[in-house]
Amino acid sequence: MQLRAMSLSRSLPATTESSNPFVSFCYSPTAMTPTKRFKRTGSRNSLQPSEPVRKTRRSLRPKPNPSPQSPIPFGKTKTLHRDFFLIDALDLAPRLLGKFLRREDVVLQITEVEAYRPNDSACHGRFGVTSRTAPVFGPGGHAYVYLCYGLHMMLNIVADKEGAGAAVLIRSCAPISGLDVIQQRRGLKTEKPILLTGPGKVGQALGLSTEWSNHPLYTPGGLELLDGPEPENILVGPRVGIQYALPEHVNALWRFAIAGTPWISAPKNTLRPAL
DNA sequence: GAAAAGATTAAA
DNA sequence: TTAATCTTTTCC
C-alpha cells in the first residue's frame, strides 16, 4: 500500500507546485483510509492505540502506515514563511508535526520532535555562541546540524527571533517519497519504522552533514520545510537522553509526537496524550 | 594541551 | 547490554 502511494508520487514531476507529490499522496485511497489499529480506545492507557494487535497472525496484520493520521487535504504545498519560525520553540515544536522535510526527491513527514529553549540546561545554546551553535542564535527557520557521538547527524530547526538561542530537534519522520534513496542511505531495505525513528536516522536518510547547518528552510532549493496536515492528536513527554541537565529540564514535557503513528522513536512509554 | 562526555545506533 | 566514534567544551 505504502509502496503504491510512493511509486505513484515518484512518477510525477516534483518541481512545480501544481504537480507536487503530496497532493497525490494525500488524496490516494490508501492514505485516506485510517487503519483500525490506530483508532483510539478512549481508555486510560493512551499508548494502547499505537501498539500492534497482539493476537492477530503476522500475515494478517496491517503493515505500518506511512501516514500518521488521515491527512487533511491541502491544495498547494509550499515552503513556510520565515515568520512561521519566529516563535518560542515550545510553540513551534508541536506545530512542526505533520510538516514535510524535502531534499530533492526525498520527502519525510515530521512525526516526533523536541523543543530546546533559552535558559534550558539541556540546550546546546547553554554555553553561549560558539562556532558550532552559532546557527541556534540566528533567526528561526534555519537548520542546525551537529555531530553526535562522533557518528550521527542531528537535524534541528532553529526557533524564535535572532539572539534567542532555541531550536527543535527532529527525532522521527515517516517516509513520503524517495523510499529507495532513503533505504540506500540508511543501508536498510525495509519500510518498517526502524527506518526513520530516531534523530540520527533522519539525518542519515536526508544525507546531511554539518555543512547543512545554518541552511534556510523557508526558501526553495536544498533542504526545505513544506506545509503539511495538522495532526488530530498529539502526545507529550519528557525529552530523551538529557540526564546531565537540571531536574526541572529533565522532567519538562517538551517532547511531542503524533498520536497513533508507528513512526516514533524509543522510549514510547513516556509519552501521554496532550490535554 | 588533555580529557571527559555526549539531544545515538545497531548488534550481541 | 555495549562497542563504535570524534567533535565540542571544559579543566588544569
From TrEMBL:
<comment type="similarity">
    <text>Belongs to the DNA glycosylase MPG family.</text>
</comment>
<keyword id="KW-0227">DNA damage</keyword>
<feature type="region of interest" description="Disordered">
    <location>
        <begin position="34"/>
        <end position="76"/>
    </location>
</feature>
<dbReference type="GO" id="GO:0006284">
    <property type="term" value="P:base-excision repair"/>
</dbReference>
<keyword id="KW-0378">Hydrolase</keyword>
<dbReference type="Pfam" id="PF02245">
    <property type="entry name" value="Pur_DNA_glyco"/>
</dbReference>
<dbReference type="InterPro" id="IPR036995">
    <property type="entry name" value="MPG_sf"/>
</dbReference>
<dbReference type="InterPro" id="IPR011034">
    <property type="entry name" value="Formyl_transferase-like_C_sf"/>
</dbReference>
<dbReference type="InterPro" id="IPR003180">
    <property type="entry name" value="MPG"/>
</dbReference>
<protein>
    <recommendedName>
        <fullName>DNA-3-methyladenine glycosylase II</fullName>
        <ecNumber>3.2.2.21</ecNumber>
    </recommendedName>
</protein>
<comment type="function">
    <text>Hydrolysis of the deoxyribose N-glycosidic bond to excise 3-methyladenine, and 7-methylguanine from the damaged DNA polymer formed by alkylation lesions.</text>
</comment>
<dbReference type="GO" id="GO:0003677">
    <property type="term" value="F:DNA binding"/>
</dbReference>
<keyword id="KW-0234">DNA repair</keyword>
<dbReference type="GO" id="GO:0003905">
    <property type="term" value="F:alkylbase DNA N-glycosylase activity"/>
</dbReference>
